[in-house]
Amino acid sequence: MAVIRLISWNVNGIRGLHRKGLTEWIGTESPDVLCLQETKAAAEQVPEEIRTLPGYSVFFSSGEKKGYSGVAVFTRKQPLATHSGLGDVRFDSDGRILLVEYPEFLLCNIYFPNGKASPERLQYKLAFYEAFLDFTNAQLKAGKQLVVCGDVNTAHQEIDLARPKENSKVSGFLPEEREWIDRFLASGFLDSFRLFQPEGGHYSWWDLKSRARARNVGWRIDYFFISQGLRQQLKSAFIMPEVMGSDHCPVGIELEI
Asked: Is the pTM of this model over 0.90?
């Protein structure tokens, strides 16, 4: 058996982060699997240096709207297959979903919608949540083990953001959003980071406009969830707040497979 290192990062624009040294960071960190969200680029718009990174197979899913959404997976571990989307026309045109099948588990790299813009966007976000829960329920029922990572755009509990009271009526910490995470976990998943770190003060996103990162006034909205059958293989879970370049920082896990 071997331990593989998986990292997830909302990069808030892969081309901008490339100019800030993304390929060098990948070379230094050398994850076995790297999942990116909010790439804001179609595959043909991504610099060739990234698309042909030595040692990795690279997969992209981009939305119909230019410069918006998008996810990517870099993998040293050869997948059995990859799929873009859930097969739901309401969501698949956004380029938010990459599914990567390995012999040991199904990896779901997801950029969940943000619900702050309007009541309509909140309803879209909640509908996406429900569709994804239906999908994962079906996968679990079929006997698959799952690793789900990405920007969920919701802080689960009060310890997952610096100012819970002030944000109790803001999308990202609404009761109905938090309750969905409760139901998702109850369906057969574990929040990997909380298995190792029960304390607050650990965040993955900080508002740029208010320079919140310098004061660590943040939110933990980026996650690695694992199905319960992978609990014994989970060796570590971590957040990398020292890694700059985006308003999010990377998060990760190590799995023995």
From this structure: yes
